[in-house]
Amino acid sequence: MGQDPGFTVKPGELTAAGNNALTVAGKVPDETAKLAEPSATAAGSLAGWQSGAALTGCSSAWKTLLDGLSTDMKTAGANLITCAQGYQNADHLPPPGAAPVSDPFETKVVGVTGGHLTRDA
Q1: Which pLDDT belongs to residue 2?
Q2: Domain that holds residue 21
Q3: pLDDT at 121
């Protein structure tokens, strides 16, 4: 089997997606507020009918749901931006290095030279 190529991250695209999510999330509360007046008017015209109360309840539930969605989108957008910043920061870190550790006892392993087994091992 071939080596797993893993995945590629483009921090700029993550940042753009996060900013888009924040922009859309910011518009949702204003848009849901616009639902209140037409819903109240429609429910008012149905005064005395069960459907009027149902419409009021439905409108309220939708507003609550959409406002919650807005909050979730803000959180997701902020998380995408944070992830992008993390990837950008990691790209600027020095490469990890494995410094050889000294052996204070100068241990010799029989049958191993230069990290490879020899014939007499």
Answers
A1: 61
A2: 11-95
A3: 45
